[in-house]
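Each letter names a residue; the fold follows as tokens. Both lines appear below:
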Amino acid sequence: MNAPLSNRVLTAFSADLQAAPRITLRGGNALDEYKVPEPFDPMLDAVSGDYFERYWWGVAYLDTSSWRHYLPQLIDYSLRRRHEPGMAIEALLTSLRPPDREPPRLAALSATEEAVVCEFLEVMAFDEQSAHHALARTALEEWWAPGALYRPVNPKQSTVQPRRQ
């Protein structure tokens, strides 16, 4: 069940996985409620399906390094649960769409990281078992596929401009 892809994703982001996130998903939810986020706690922020589904809204509030920490774990979770609807998977797919942030998230990935993200999106977009075809296809069309609509011509450029006129 896409174990090789999950393994490649986890390997590509291994350094990010080892670093504690500055903002946790739980902390992101707190920010959404106008509260001060509590620091990372290994017990309260232990990654699990329940954690992802409880704090899915926090994905929108992650800074780049925290997003990179959770990205491979959310991809792995999404691959295993791709046949089910879920807010955590939708939050992840939405975070892979433009516009990019400043500092960038999407444009900050290496070629290896981009390749595994693209492969993940292709599974989510085209696998018969996926319940997330439309959102994954939108992410591919807007940023990840060749000739994407809103990907800057210069990958280090963070201002998104449509390619089609």
